[in-house]
Amino acid sequence: MTRDHHVTRRLVAISLEFVLSLGCNSALAEDVTDFGSRPASAGEIIDALKPEPTMKTRGIRLEEVAAAPKEEPKAISMQLLFEFASADLSAEAKSHLDAVAAAMSSEQLVQYGFLVEGHTDAVGSDEYNQNLSEARAKSAKTYLVDDKGVDASRIQTVGKGEGDLLKPGEPEAAENRRVQIVRQQKTVSQATTE
Question: DSSP of the chain, one letter per residue?
């Protein structure tokens, strides 16, 4: 991947709306692929999130090896919005989550856990927004688990309230009402079997 490509992908991080990222905090994601409001396929999500192999040389032969333990955070961005004061998923949001579920279940990502973060805009009290953001995170998890069969033990939820606005200059913007899904380290059961 060229340096220019990395710079372009980092600039896209400014428009994060729906994030799958390596690490514990979506703000750490530096390598972002932005799908915007266009639905991404499971294959596109997998390609954007799978760890990049490192290369070792032995003489003149290149050999692909497993990714280094300390990977650069990666993320995807796609629109997954909620109606005002709602935790209900629209049909469009469900179609985005369908591709996410397929990616989570893929051979390349099945060994990872995920953190589903719910977010709100800045309309309403802090307590109301905190509760709503928790409900949004749970709504996305429920759909992924109950409707798409993702193992519930691989998904944790957290509400972020209005504390991490996508558009801080527009605190009431619809884009702030979203869910971010953070890719975490390998799950314990998978890490111990390798």
Answer: --HHHHHHHHHHGGG-SSEEEBSS-GGG--EEEEEETSPPPHHHHHHHHSPPPEEEEETTEEEEEPPPSSPPPEEEEE--B--TT--PPPHHHHHHHHHHHHHHTSTTTTTEEEEEEE---S-S-HHHHHHHHHHHHHHHHHIIIIIT---GGGEEEEE-TTTT-SSTTSTT-GGGSBEEEEEEEEPHHHHHH-
Q: Are 49 and 109 in contact (CB under 8 A)?
A: yes
Residue type, 105: S
Cβ atoms of 104 and 46 closer than 8 Å: no
What is the pTM for the complete model shown?
Answer: 0.71
HSE-CB at 116 with a 13 A cutoff on CA atoms is 27
Q: pLDDT, tens digit, for every residue of 56-74?
A: 555 555 555 554 455 555 6
What are the tens digits of pLDDT across the range 103-121?
999 999 998 888 888 888 9
Q: Domain extents for the chain?
A: 3-193
Q: Which CATH architecture has domain 3-193?
A: 2-Layer Sandwich (3.30)
Question: What do you get for the CA distance between the two ends of the chain, in Å?
Answer: 28
